[in-house]
Amino acid sequence: MQEEEEILAGAEGDSFPLMDMYKQETPDPEAWDFVLVAAQSTQSNREQMERQQRFLDELRRKGFRVKVLETSSQMFFGIGTSSRVLDLYHALLLEPKGSCPSPSKDPNLAATRIRIINFVLKRKTETGDTFDDMMKDGVFEAKFPLHKGEEYLKSKWAQWRDIFQKQPIDKIRDYFGEKVALYFAWLGWYTYMLVPAALVGLIVFFSGFALFDASQISKEICNATDVFMCPHGERQRTYRPLSDTCTFAKLTHLFDNEGTVLFAIFMALWATVFLEIWKRQRARVVLHWDLYGWDEDQEEMALQLINSPEYQLQPHQHSYVRSTIILIVSLLMICLLIGMAHVLVVYRVVAGPLFSSWTSGILREEYVTTAVVVTGAVVHYVIIVVLTKVNKCVALKLCDFEKPRTFSERERKFTIKFFMLQFFTHFSSLVYIAFILGRINGHPGKSTRLAGQWKLEECHLSGCMMDLFVQMAIIMILKQTLSNCAEYLKPWLTHKWRTMCSGSHRLAQDPELAHWQRNYLLNEVNTFSLFDEFMEMMIQYGFTTIFVAAFPLAPLLAFFSNLLEIRLDAIKMVRLQRRLVPRKAKDIGTWLQVLETIGVLAVIANGMIIAFTSEFIPRVVYKYRYGPCSRGTPTTQDCLTGYVNHSLSIFYTKDFPHLAGTETPENVTQCRYRDYRHAGGDYNLSEQFWYILAIRLAFLILFEHVALCIKLIAAWFVPDVPQSVKNKVLGDKYQELQEKLRSISKSTEV
Questions:
Q1: pLDDT tens across 546-556, in order?
Q2: In whole angstroms, what is the distance from residue 381 CA to residue 347 CA?
Q3: Predicted pLDDT of residue 29
Q4: How far is the C-alpha of 424 from the C-alpha of 69, rounded, in Å?
Q5: For every residue of 169-193, which 3-state class applies, written as one string?
Q6: pLDDT 10s digits, 322-352
Q7: Of 46, 44, 43, 41, residue with least CA distance to 72
Q8: What residues contact 49, with CB distance under 8 A and at least 6 apart?
Q9: Of 542, 534, 516, 520, whose CA–CA distance to 583 is shortest?
């Protein structure tokens, strides 16, 4: 106490005696791995300086070294780890086989030092404060590990010219730790595996071009000048010939053809093979890093004991009350997110009549519908951006309420909650378009209306697959393009602004202090920096697999986006951001379960798209039951001849409740619409509707069982862990037991 009073009494000007004591240390410069930043000391912030002194003194007592370098406005505190702390760390985590007996043999010593310092800084001090509390109170401004020895990564990895070069995963691991390295290893493997998926998707898409003009259905639609469609919009009461949809019918055939089914099955198999081979890749990499038997809980407890030898083990906790509250809140959030998807429904319902009135007949009805679909997709993207911030906040609150034991457990729980909310945010509107849009609208003359006023939106004149295709294309292109641009431009502009505001001429003459200042001027990173990268890729993976039957070009877009994403993340992490704290890991954690869940959802969703959204089932039913080739009848006609007439129901114009304002050509007594209903009377659903519905359900069950069986067979056929890895682990255990046996034998002989 007396010593503290002397220190405080001797405080004058811009320095304190304790700071002078730290300045006298002259350890190896390589020992400074972490830097803390605070405002320069003044008489007005004496209390904050006292808290700084107590905190730094506590670090010193725990075995950390401190060095102070000053500028006219800031103080920089270099933090280093003493050999005593490193010896304790390696002794606590010493493997029985003695693979890492001392710091000198630690292959990743720099990352270990940073990880230890960061862990201690995040714990509560003797006064009960955390470093984050002190930052909020203005005691410190920032903390970050130093960028050191990144020249190789800058020249061989973080360059746009290296976009097609193999990633130096081992070098990434040495610098950023295993967790970041596994992210880039997974992302690289995912991008590599997208090549066959993209090629098959292109084949399926361009196979439609081969039949662009030869398709029997397209021919019939293009020649149907005497077939008039019922009014499609709310205000547009014009009977237009079916031939007006000729172009859209041809375009729809590009992604709604017989190859769609095969491609959906292929993507189910692809997703399984991708994950199984990644598990094998991961096992090889982790064995190479000697982390196959690494225990995360053991690492966390060792760091706790290094920070405080009096640490008491915190057991796992579970509360049914908390779990029930979390479940209820999660369900309410999901309902809210599904409700937000209906904002898109309301927009499209209201926008249709508005667009029609604004254009005043300038645009055709089908172009008005397309404009509504396109702008609706943009609205959906804006909703996604806003709700992402809300979802993260809610997931964090729920996670903290659950009281996880460790940071890693908190991260796992947060991952599950946040992904669940993000999934509904991104895919609710797509589910509506794929499976609900146009199916609860009634029929001409008796339409279902929103709030009794606005007529519900219909599918595009060429079918619901066109709506889903446009929605997928716009969201993927917007999300990939805008996200990548924002992800690069924002940190680049922020770094330029920070550098410009500070002025390069204001950097200190001392090379070490100038290096610390340059690191300080880099963009901040946080706990979610790597998490956000993983989440972005998971959502993209969902778009690439779940609705791929409606958008076979999704793997191609994902491939090109990932090529940019890898280098963009590399440049951002090495050149524009402060160094991420290296973290140990032996897999990608909960994200693997997320990928497996998406794979199962992809099978279900694609089966439902083919069964209920695509025209595949009605075409097959017509071909083998109603068409000219039905029951094996020999014919020279195309088997789909007459399909268009068969698939359009008849509505008599005299049954419209309001004919005022309707432009009715001469002799038009009936119009057609997409459905299977009886003509006249109550326009009830016809026998064909129920027969096709039964076939749709049968196909869905068959498709999902076949696809899931293929997934299970592929998972069995490709073992998660290569035999070479198993044999290496087995051999190491055998050798360890032999050494113990020899040691026991020698002690017995003595």
A1: 888 888 888 99
A2: 13
A3: 44
A4: 50
A5: HHHHHHHHCHHHHHHHHHHHHHHHH
A6: 889 988 998 998 888 887 767 777 776 777 6
A7: 41
A8: 11, 16, 41
A9: 534
What is the C-alpha to C-alpha distance for residues 749 and 731, in angstroms, rounded to an integer? 27
Over residues 309-324, the mean pLDDT reads 82
Residue 406 CA to residue 299 CA, distance in Å, equals: 11
Amino acid letter, residue 640:
L
What does the pLDDT look like over 494-524, one tens digit per residue? 888 888 877 655 777 888 888 999 999 999 9
Cross-strand pairs, 80: 32, 65
d(CA 643, CA 219): 11
- Tokens representing 529 are 């920096």
Q: Which residue has the tokens 């304002």?
A: 661
Q: By three-state DSSP, how is residue 241 classified?
A: strand
- At 646, list the tokens: 């068969």
Pairing mode of beta strands 228-229, 142-145: unpaired
Interatomic CA distance for residues 293 and 284, integer angstroms? 13
| Cβ-proximal residues to 86 (8 Å cutoff; 6+ apart), any chain | 103, 106, 109, 112, 113, 116
DSSP string, 704-726: HHHHHHHHHHHHHHS-SS-HHHH
CB 521 within 8 A of CB 498: yes
Judge residue 503's burial from the number of C-beta atoms within 10 Å of its C-beta, 0-12 exposed, 13-18 middle, 19 or more buried: exposed
H or E, element range at 323: helix 320-359
Q: Which two tokens stand for residue 450?
A: 């929103």
- Rounded-to-integer distance, Cα 558 and Cα 267, Å: 14
| CA pair distance 254, 271, nearest whole angstrom | 23
Query: What is the tens place of the pLDDT at every residue in 166-214?
Result: 899 999 999 999 999 999 999 999 999 999 999 999 888 887 777 666 7
Question: Distance between CA 638 and CA 641 in Å, rounded?
Answer: 5
pLDDT at 51 over 50: yes
Give the number of C-alpha atoms closer than 13 A to the C-alpha of residue 42, restricted to the C-beta side: 7
Measure the N-to-C terminal CA separation of the chain; round to a whole number of Å.
56
Count of all residues that appear for the chain in the document:
750
- Cβ distance 205 to 254 under 8 Å? yes
Distance CA 538, CA 599 (A): 11
From CA 495, how far away is CA 485, in angstroms rounded? 15
CA distance 723 to 55: 51
- Tokens for 669, please give them: 């007594």
| Single-letter amino acid, residue 118 | N
Neighbours of 518 (CB within 10 A): 15
Number of helices followed by number of strands (H, E) in the chain: 25, 12
Diameter of the chain measured on Cα atoms = 115
For residue 241, list its beta bridge partners: 228
φ/ψ of 64, rounded to 5, equals -105, 150
Alpha helices in 211-258 (DSSP H): 216-223, 246-255
Q: Can you tell me the mean pLDDT for 4-8?
A: 34
The span from the CA of 293 to the CA of 282, in Å, is 13
Percent of the chain having pLDDT more than 90? 13
Q: Within a 10 A sphere around the Cβ of 11, how many other Cβ atoms?
A: 19
Residue with tokens 């009936």: 670
Q: Which of 61, 59, 12, 8 is nearest to 35 (CA)?
A: 59
CA distances from 267 to 259, 261, 552, 707 (A): 12, 10, 10, 9
* Distance of alpha carbon 80 from alpha carbon 113, whole angstroms: 8
- Sorted by sequence, the CB contacts under 8 Å of residue 273 that are 6+ apart come out as 193, 714, 718
